[in-house]
């Protein structure tokens, strides 16, 4: 901590990060131990965060992230979209296919940025706001593989055909960990199969997007 920072705000943000990292919530005692502060401090932090709906506590006293974070998250999408556009534009132009950035929204994959190539005679119409389940389509399935394996290699991508639109093939790679966003970068094209060079190019684009989000 420095003279220009707030210790209380820092602790509150650390509480939110700790809660975001667990599915089953944390007790006051567990938070106290992880933060290295006494229980009274944790109670005050949780009470303040609850007032803003950023934290909720169940009947057993376990604290979890509250629905208030959803409102904050929606405001992040325009910033993420703006940051990702240069890499997506380069990807779309290089491969001649519609490029997209997709993020997790609950149990679904949500496209937040889409760039169509400028030089092709035809391409797949894919719009920001399009959503689908995480277990269908290259974008969603790439996010799932990013949760369960090391993706720091050129094979960290998924290829699909006809899962979301008949005749369309997709390639997508998860965003590398550490960029603060759970999502994927991919392309969709009207081909029976994805050319072999597209997968590694999508991986590179995902890394480029992650770099500007860090």
Walk me through the structure.
Keywords: DNA-binding, Transcription, Transcription regulation. There is one protein chain. By secondary structure, the protein is α+β, with helices and mostly antiparallel strands. Helices cover 42% and strands 20% of the residues. It contains 6 helices and 8 strands, in the order H-H-H-E-E-H-E-E-E-H-E-E-E-H. The strands form 2 sheets. It has a 6-stranded antiparallel beta sheet with strand order 5-4-3-8-7-6. Strands 1-2 form a two-stranded antiparallel sheet. Helix 2 (28-35) packs across helix 3 (39-51) and helix 4 (68-95) packs across helix 6 (198-213). The longest helix is centred in the middle third of the chain and has 28 residues, at 68-95. The chain is elongated. The two termini are 21 Å apart.
Structure keywords:
single chain, DNA-binding, transcription, Arc Repressor Mutant, subunit A, Helix-turn-helix domain-containing protein, two-stranded antiparallel ribbon, 6-stranded antiparallel β-sheet, elongated, 214 residues, alpha+beta, 20% strand, DNA-binding transcription factor activity, 8 strands, Tscrpt_reg_IclR_C, Beta-Lactamase
How would you briefly describe this protein structure?
42% of the residues lie in helices and 20% in strands. With 214 residues, the protein is α+β, with helices and mostly antiparallel strands. It folds into 2 domains: 7-65, Winged helix-like DNA-binding domain superfamily/Winged helix DNA-binding domain (Arc Repressor Mutant, subunit A), CATH 1.10.10.10; 73-213, GAF domain (Beta-Lactamase, 2-Layer Sandwich), CATH 3.30.450.
